């Protein structure tokens, strides 16, 4: 399965909070977020190829990836969906692929394999991953999007490449796991991620 990592956003909220480093290059426990995600995906048995989708908004990230010979797709930076669709079409991805935001510092291989396995159990062409709002509140995380039923999107999806320009019926996979809840949107999220980094038990009952 192909994996796309979306890492071309402007990071406006981080800049407003005084963080000048491009979000993918923010270090959590001494390692850039983008490196953490790439390593996890490369180690996942179900993932065959990894491509980072960037844009002109992240020149330092582009340089970091180029120095390590990591596959990239240059989007136009006109938005998540547009850049993702263009990447899928350019890479000629027809089969199901996984796409994740480039701001998930606690992502791990176990979770990737769990998501891919769950996708195979359902008939819907797409799968979206969510955590309960109460988990975010327990962690002092303030999500931007809350769906009906108090579900918070994690920023991880599986979609059919040959249907990427169309709305796809999706199965909502709800996980009560910290590594799906923590993303880096605001400066205080860095502190939360640092505290949780390296913990063996990444879920809350």
Task: Describe, in plain words, how this protein is organized in 3D.
The structure is a single chain. This protein has eight helices and nine strands. It is α/β, with parallel strands linked by helices and 205 residues long. The C terminus is likely disordered.
Briefly characterize the structure:
33% of the residues lie in helices and 22% in strands. The chain has 205 residues and is of the alpha/beta class.
Which shape, going by the Cα principal axes? globular
Give the helix/strand class. Answer: alpha/beta
Number of helices: 8
Beta-strand content estimate: 15-25%
Q: Biggest sheet, strands in spatial order?
A: 5-4-1-6-8-7-9
What is the helix/strand order? EHEEHEHEHEHEHEEHH
Average pLDDT metric: 93
Radius of gyration: 16 Å
Q: How does the major sheet shape up?
A: 7 strands, mixed
Descriptive key words:
205 residues; alpha/beta; seven-stranded mixed β-sheet; 8 helices; 33% helix
Topology:
Elements: E1 2-6, H1 12-16, E2 27-28, E3 31-32, H2 33-43, E4 49-54, H3 59-67, E5 72-74, H4 80-90, E6 96-101, H5 109-119, E7 126-132, H6 133-138, E8 151-160, E9 170-174, H7 178-181, H8 187-196
